[in-house]
UniProtKB/TrEMBL annotation:
Ranges for domain Pirin C-terminal: 201-301
Name used for this protein in its record: Pirin
Species for this entry: Saonia flava
Domain Pirin N-terminal: 64-139
Chain intervals for the UniProt region annotation (Disordered): 309-332
Amino acid sequence: MGSQIKNIFPLGFPWRTQDPFLFCVYHLDLYPKGNEEMGPAESLDGRPLGNDFVGKDGWRMYHGQTVPGFPAHPHRGFETITIVNKGYCDHSDSLGAAGRFGDGDVQWMTAGAGVQHSEMFPLLKTEEENPLELFQIWLNLPKANKFVDPHFKMLWHEDIPFVQKKGVKIKIISGDYFNTKAPLPAPNSWASNPENEVAIWNIYMEPNAKLELPMTAAEVNRTLYYYKGNNVTIGNEKLTPNHGAELDSQTKTTLVNGDKASHFLVLQGNPINEPVVKYGPFVMNTEEEIQQSMQQYRLTQYGGWPWQHSDNVHPKKKGRFAKYPDGTLVEK
């Protein structure tokens, strides 16, 4: 195998990740027209509502009963980075914060000591279809930051830089691509220290285009996910869609695209190299900490749920916005 590639693996559900990343999932749902409740204007008969992951007719309700999405659930000990390329996500949380983001926006949420949130996908269009394309990435927190206060930050698509070269477009969500720097991440993130070289790049390549990935200052974990296209050549190896490649970040890496447009996600970062114990939405360093997290959630519900419904959605005509725990409101 070429020295640029360490390993090739098939993409599953979720996608395989390397430290400091814990989880990555790609959602592509071709939702139909919406109804007045912002759910699908089609029958839900025959779907296992509450746990609909089958993909019938090209879309899923996930844990939603009326509106697709993920009703209130807890997180602790890590961060979620939610990239919505198409469609919209309605955020509500136990801190009283809320938001609607989409069409390229990114939400960076530090769960830290514990937070509940819901992520619903309102189908706002009633006269046309409502496609959703979304990545959710879990980035671990080091032991020193496991219990920081919860925090969320919006990276609005207007503020996210793109690198455009001949036949290539790169969305710089985190990190530095040949001196094009992403917006600052959440303040307690592993990504907030440049020495950790955390990068999240969403890449589009036109047919026959070429792309060079920059070498890192130190050896870090770098994974390339190929989720749409025909084929791409890396060194002397061909990579086909629905496969990932673990790359050598200190070797010059050049991608040469095939005869169809290709789409990639890159996740890169210096490993935290600490024990990881996971139980559903809790990620700690020891089994004892997991038990304590579960007990605290049972006792406190991480502040409770201040919304009327666990699957809270915002008014249909509301635009993109973020309301922060301190009451600050940003409307786009």
